[in-house]
Amino acid sequence: MGDLAWILISALLVNNFVLTLFLGLCPFFGVTSRVSTAVRLGLANLFVLLLTALCAWFLNRFVLGEAPYLRLIAFIVVIASLVQIVEMAIKKWSPVLFRQLGIYLPLITTNCAILGLAIFQTNRGYGFWQGMAFAVGAGLGLTLALVLMASIRERLDVADVPAVARGTGIVLIIAACLSLAFMGFAGLGSSL
Amino acid sequence: MAAAPAASLEDLTRGLWRENPVLVQMLGLCPTLAVTNSVANGIAMGVATLFVLLGSNVLVASLRTVIPKEVRITSYILIIATFVTTADFTLEALVPRIHAALGPFVALIVVNCIILGRAEAFASRVSVRRAALDAIGMGTGFTMVLLMMSGVREVLGSGTLLGMALFGGRFEPWVIMVLPPGGFLTLGIFLLLLAWRAERRQRVQEA
Amino acid sequence: MTTAHAHPSPAASAPGSGTPSWRLLTILSLSGALAGGLIVSAYRATLPPIEAHRAARVEAAIREVLKLPARWDTLYLDRGALTKRLPDGANPKAVERVFLGFDSNGNPVGAAITAGRPGFADIINLIFGLDPTSGTLLGMKVLTSKETPGLGDKIYRDSGFVRQFRGAVAPLKGVKDVSGKSQSEVAVITGATISSRTVIRIINEATARWQPLLQAYRAKATP
User: Fold this and answer.
1) B1 lies in a domain?
2) pTM of this prediction?
3) In terms of residue numbers, what domain contains A64?
4) In this structure, what are the phi and psi dihedrals at residue C131, rounded to the nearest 5 degrees?
């Protein structure tokens, strides 16, 4: 059980997907101007991550054993299909949410965090529950990073940012500070 | 066609600076930050991405009349994934140590927004020749940024360049530069410098 | 992302001129088959050099941790015991193995064992040499590690850390300062305790697992 706890905490804090592993940067820089959008997108990503971990486990276990070289193409096709299905499901069951997420929903396909999760899960040989724990940690970690950045950016809107830094410059500097702060989690879980 | 030569040069150089995929379009950030902790890794990633971009653009442009509009994104993804898998195997066969260092980021070229972006926005609408030139321009621009980033990060963070120690034994490397915060910081400072230069040029023009 | 690429809707975009579904399906299937075929060819073409690299790496690692043995036997784990022969019908890549080294006189010098487990950042894989009779380590080499540069990566960059495994007796005990009273003490790296302790744990677990198997194999071999 400590194994699963470490996998979750590691993906959430110690080796945060965004701030340490550099996965999921497109939404991190593109979608973090408002906290409300950031939360919604983070949770949508978490949902897709869980489904991806499930499918990746299934593919690795039952389908790709004899043909490991088809792994990448299988993963990316599955992810693209998953996102399309999730998009259609949200459109049907919650048109309000669909409108709010807008263009960002199909962009989840090219979010490197999704494919990155599948690849890491495969390389580390995670079983079913480990994969799930990994997806939960990664999704929550992604949401956490998005929300942190969004809250800071909302405050930046009314702050006096130097002209040269306005836009992505200041966001990157802040990301550096956030990443540095997260390095403080380095000793966490050493007793696990 | 009198317009062709000018358009060709434009296609080639657009991606180098004016519409640089990383610094201007803000695409392909994940690999830019992740693999630039050493120059060797940066070059390998740049070359691999250029290869995939070229292959993808050429193929997409060749098949632009054949691929139905409804399934174009899926087709592009299939094409890109094939080239990336090939690049992955080739790197592992030729430079196994660098391939191990790049890790999952070679496979992640598949979701590099630059490649899908160019296929959708450009290659699917122009001739093969123009698409190829565009790919070379964008790929080279991307590699240039990787080189700049990794040059700074490796020299300051490890005290080496391409593995060769530059300073004497007394140099205490600024390790943070090869760690994640250093990646964000380096790119941020580059963007700051670019914005500063643009602002100065504008002030000179207005004066 | 500045280039927006909205997912195309399944319905036709222009009135009355949409592509029929069967055509879409055919084109997608053909593309998929073509893509698969190309990937398989690339895989076949690059397989020989990749396998050669892997074999060379393993060989070099065995030589290093067993201190230049004259030759070695590959022993496979088959139904709870070690044998020289690969079990029938088994996938060579899936069977676990260790390498038993011999010096030029044909005397066994020890076994090279590969093992790994998750460290701080990612999985740490290493190979170490073990003398099964006394439980003494002959050497240790980290094979793959993604530990933090400047901190965790000292498990292979710090030659002092690596060197202390030679001559240490399993099961190892990680300590802050070596008192010299026991051969089992190994100093952990300050600032990289998780990575260091993972290395120690990998070796202890692998030794506990393989030592009895190796001793049983030796007992069977000597009449």
Assistant:
1) no
2) 0.86
3) 2-191
4) -95, 110
